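**Backbone description:**
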Amino acid sequence: MNRAWLLGVFIVGLSTYCVVGTYFGVWGSKAPTTEQIPSADASAGDHERDRETPVVRTIPVDSPAPFSPSGSSADDAVSVSTDARISSETFDTTPIEEVPGGSLTTTPEMKRNEVLAHLAQARGEKDVLKRARGLSKVLQSGLLSKEEEESAYGDLLVANQAGVLSPRCNEGFFRETVHEGGDSLWKIAKRVSAAGHPFYACGLLQLVNSLPNDRIKVGQQLKIPNHSPSIVLSKSRHVLWLVLDDFVLRRFPIGVGRENKTPEGEFEIGSREKEPTWYPPGGGSIPFGDPSNVLGTRWLGFKERTDFPGASSFGFHGTWDDQTIGGDFSEGCIRMLNRDIEELFDLVECGARVSIQP
């Protein structure tokens, strides 16, 4: 009886000890607390905050930004540290102008810098034809200073002499053989014109073949241009270029009409006259040699246009007053120095295109 009672007491005590020990960590574990088990609301809030805050990495300016094949995302957001010390003074902060349609145009300073880069590239080009093309394009940009333009034009003349004007250059030309029986540049020009090509001025054939004069030899292979040269001029810059394909062959200073009287657009040479007679707007005629004749030594008149009545009253001519070159003094015609209009006269024929730009 006593043994049974003692055994019962021992079993009850042992059970009590195990329960109390488990609760108070006797066996090496702690009772859970509310700080270790966050509520469902608190957990959701933390996860939302993680999604809203992108991972931002500081990238040194000398290191490339990481590339994301799938595009930008919150995890791929990159910022540049202020330690990079990027200052607005380091860059050209001139704004880029936006034009209708969403396209962007650069500022004049940016355009000029681009032209100067093209000029340097053209000067470094070993191929003389590519060099001449590059220089020709830069010259017509209108963004060079007077000194830069003079220097570039000098370089162009040298490149042309070794390239497009060299007797060995065939690009843009075909060959015509000098025949027996008193063949001449004029007869050759007439012969190729009859075959469907433009009628070329004898002076142009002489220039592109680097002939010192108009004398040619039987059997000689002459270069004939595939296209007629054209005249391009800028009123605001008072300059004229004679262009053959992509090459500027000659550049001349000009004078234009006062009060914007010189028309703009596309024209053709329609008449040529040495020692021209002047027909003033008020009527009558003034022969060459009369001090009142303002046309100088040559006249290159425009061809009449149905959409431009009176176009044939405009043209290129010389002048006895050299001070008017570079200014706006005429009644609408383009004035040139007598020596310049004489050279141009020998290089173009009727049908040559004329582009007059603002």
Notes: The two ends are 131 Å apart (CA to CA).
